[in-house]
Amino acid sequence: MVKWKNQIDEWELHEIRILIMEWLSIPEVADRIWRNKSTLYRLFVNNWIRYNEKKFIYVWGKSWKPLLREKWKRRVQFVPRHVFLLRENRRREASRRYCRIMPWWKLEKYILERIIRDQWSSKQISGRWRLEKLEPLSKDTIYRYIYSNHFHLVRKFFRRKWKRYQHWRKNKYQLQDRTMIDLRPEIINRRERFWDWEWDTIVWIRWWSNQVILTNVERRSWYLLAKKLLNWTWENVLNSTIELFSKMPKRKIKTITYDNWREFSEHRMIEFHTKLKVYFAHPYSSWERWTNENTNWLLRQYMPKKTDFKDVSDVELDKYVKLLNNRPRERLWFLTPHEVFIKWKSCIWL
């Protein structure tokens, strides 16, 4: 007999009921549905279904003696839908995590009173509970319970409304040995010279696609360089950066400003090979690199957020970059980034 690894589903339960109605025994039913008879016995025991029930008779002057069921077969009361719901309920109860705060408990009443009446935060409630009751209580436990059972209180009484706290993300992808944007010279912030760049990556909305587009924008002229990467790794970013800047004069390459993602972790190697000075913007401060962010938004005109980068060839990407570099910009007095960057000697007044 073939050994099945999956559990009995609902349609098999209905088939079992039909076979039982035809007065088949449990081993015969198991053979018909290609299951082991112990599987069906276990199914009946777990769901309190009576089968082969022993009967007792009293012999005069002696004790009760068990007597097996009569020779005629007794019908088994088997309701498939009831069995299916019982099994689903057991699964739900088994997967339920233990919660310190239960409904109608004194702790729940204390927490709800402090949130609704006194408008305390979860950290204040946990600290006061430890002070008064000398019992441990974590603020994360309170947050988890409120989000699961009283979500309507979040928008009304919590300071961050429906937004969850993100303290756990602070140290997740922390890059080492960074030079922050605060140390960047003021001449770069005022856009008074060329060859200062901002880099970023454009990712697809689906997590299973590793292909990204690496974008590089010159701060003063808004000139765009873009390249498609097959994998979202620091090796590809390093090699692509070296390849792009190897074609430029060494004496003109000055600075570059990065985001805080993992693909820029080898920034010291980039400084060594390209002679660039690398700076990093602050986490969650995209406005510090708004030149690059705005250019990415313009590039999304040709590649919307639901575009799979596997369908975008290098020729198409070069075409989009060329269109953007030859588009007049109001902040450049309606000159194009190509004119400003390539022919900057004639546009030195910008």
UniProtKB/TrEMBL annotation:
Output the Gene3D superfamilies linked to this UniProt entry.
Answer: Ribonuclease H-like superfamily/Ribonuclease H
User: Could you state a single Gene Ontology molecular function term?
Assistant: nucleic acid binding
Q: What PROSITE patterns does the record point to?
A: INTEGRASE
Annotated Gene Ontology cellular components are: cytosol
Domain of life from the UniProt record: Bacteria
Entries under NCBIfam families matching the protein = transpos_IS30
Tell me what this protein is called: IS30 family transposase
